[in-house]
Amino acid sequence: MQSLNSKYFNIILFTDLMSAKWKGFSSTIRAEEARNILLEHINNIIETERISVFDAFNRKLSCEIVSDKSLPGFKRSAMDGYAVKSRNTFGASDTSPIQLRISGKTEIGDTEKLELTDGAAIRISTGAPLPDNADAVIKIEECEEINEFTLEIYSSVASGKNVANEDEDVKINEIIFSKNHLILPWDLALLVSLGIQEVDVYRKPKVAILSTGSELVAINEVLKLGQVVDSNRPAIEVWCRYLGAEIAFSETCVDEVDEITDRLNKFAGNCDLIITTGGTSVGTRDYMAEIISKNGKHWVNGISIRPGKPVIVGQVFGTLIIALPGYPLAAFINFDIFVVLALQYWTGMSSYWEHETDVKLNQSIASNSGTRDMVRLVDAEDGADLVRITGAGILSSLTRADYLLEIPEDLEGYNKGSEVKVRRLRK
Amino acid sequence: MQSLNSKYFNIILFTDLMSAKWKGFSSTIRAEEARNILLEHINNIIETERISVFDAFNRKLSCEIVSDKSLPGFKRSAMDGYAVKSRNTFGASDTSPIQLRISGKTEIGDTEKLELTDGAAIRISTGAPLPDNADAVIKIEECEEINEFTLEIYSSVASGKNVANEDEDVKINEIIFSKNHLILPWDLALLVSLGIQEVDVYRKPKVAILSTGSELVAINEVLKLGQVVDSNRPAIEVWCRYLGAEIAFSETCVDEVDEITDRLNKFAGNCDLIITTGGTSVGTRDYMAEIISKNGKHWVNGISIRPGKPVIVGQVFGTLIIALPGYPLAAFINFDIFVVLALQYWTGMSSYWEHETDVKLNQSIASNSGTRDMVRLVDAEDGADLVRITGAGILSSLTRADYLLEIPEDLEGYNKGSEVKVRRLRK
Fold first, then answer.
1. Does B182 touch chain A (CB under 8 A)?
2. Among A128, A90, A89, A136, which residue's Cα sits nearest to residue A109?
3. Which of B189, B219, B234 shows the shortest C-beta gap to A235?
4. Comparing B110 with A62, which gets the higher pLDDT?
5. What's the pTM value of the predicted model, to 2 decimals?
6. CATH topology of domain A76-164
7. Which among A21, A194, A355 has the least Cβ separation from residue B141?
8. What is the mean predicted confidence (pLDDT) over B177-204?
9. For chain A, N or C: smaller number of CB within 10 Å?
10. Is it true that domain B2-45+203-347 has CATH number 3.40.980.10?
């Protein structure tokens, strides 16, 4: 056992492990409580960076944005019609139309400001700037050009009618986005409309990923007996990036205390969050709890959930760490519970598994009281079926599944035919 | 009017426009019907590409994937304990324990296969390969090492107990993903686990974007009267990319028939979808319907929705085109209705505005029968308020909003206090 020589490792005899196993995770707590503990310990990212507005999509503003101009920025027509002086239209009706002189036209894109004289009308298209002296637009349906020079109008218009003010959309000095606003596509459009070329945003959270496991090999290696390809890590990478994080480190490491400790020490201080997989249970090579205790502390060590019990949340060498179990299903369930929470705290972005829907259960499902069961379901005729195979190591039970059903700690299960709220694993 | 000289343009006199305005969009149809028409005309992307599995996240498989190996690939222990021959344990109990000789140990990561002899037990950790001749694992809790060489066991185990088969997760020749499966993080993990280094996927849909409008200028230009920054285009770009598309072209163009026609001609055949903004209404410079009719056809010209009525769906120079209105709110609403539909048809990815939730209305909202109203709401104490300012040109009514309420064509509105289903604009 490599660990016996380690200065970092409190030697655990096999008999000690037995008692560890018997008492299980003495500090096991509910998932919700564990999430709250994580939230209590997480720190805001305070570093900011100034970026081009065109790169600001899905970034979080580090200060509020105040408009220094109005939008649209000029008084414009809200209709296709004729710009008029409203007082020239008073009394017009179908039976007693008023004639105005057509003195010009203005279109969207015309940059020369026209001037309206008394008794005249200027053809105007929707969105075109209102001529000087005009105070209303009469809609095309309410008048007729009886010849090239003469407009006959059939109704009067009040001052301001069919005119959009220059600050109809945004006023000068208006707070258009508050600090921490996440820039979505239409937000980007508003920033660009205001001519804002750069914005200050929080830098992306930096994540370090470490797969631990002496059995792990790279995808291009020939597997020896007992070896498996390191597959959690690439999945965690893409999921983290999807949530707006930057991958600062991504490595694989054998189950050796010194080696793991060295890697964590290298990562710490150079990232906001360390994510590890493996070594979180109570077997002979499960070193994560020890390493974290020795070089930091853990606030959560095991949660009352199935699958996914052996997860550790704490800090190591001063940096936040979420140590996921090595078994893939358990790893991804805890990723969803803890890593998504942390990354969304920083980035505010969407993740998978957020859509809820209702399904009818085609089978009864039992659950241990005191444990939150994470049950995979698959779409079936007239309801949802259980995914046949279970176990924290069975990745295909997740890739086959359409829904995740959470059976809370206080429930002992659901009867066949129950309508339950589930989360969609896929769109 | 530039268009008068255009060989592509059927001259429309201003009086013709008036009748066009009066009859409105004669072919106006409901949004749902228009979406179905788009779906009838959209073609599958058939070109595929072979990419690294590590780039396969959010890509759609172009053929099914069959495993050529089993997972985990070897028989392994499901528990920490001792590998035994089950028949050596028969009859063991607390009162009459059986002693076995401890002949070795095996851990995760050990690549040498051990062999179990009769009457012996081998220490084994969860996930470690089962020794030859062993057929069960006795849990650590059900036995005790009375000395270094001797294990005393207190219960019997049946053959296969606490052993995971080599194909427990995936069997050889199993179809693990069908054609058209979208690769999500856990799917990526399964592919990597199986040692699959490359996958065949459909290429990304290619989109061409054209903002039309003589009033449009770049963000770094000094605005003259009536000019506005081209802000729809960058927003459409990021939203398209978010949906898995590649931007083949992204350009701005004045309201001139020849110019627009040339651009569309350049794009067509070099992309899967052309998205334009502007020129879709019935004003003097609204050329899109004419250009599309002249060089292709439109299946949809106007839908009964507010805001967002002037939208055109068709094909031009043989390529699918979705011509969005120029006003930003109307553009984004139609983007959601049509562009998201098309891109999701190809990519299967998630978009914004997909989450539904229920809110209570703090105000009554009226709606014209026959029109689908897209109402922006904002989170408020004890319910949702209407966003004060309306109009297709008011982008800030979208950036301020938290929810989108759709009032169907057959309803005349909702009373204050109604509980309504809304779509979340933000997470």
1. yes
2. A128
3. B189
4. A62
5. 0.91
6. Molybdopterin biosynthesis moeA protein; domain 3 (2.170.190)
7. A21
8. 98
9. C
10. yes
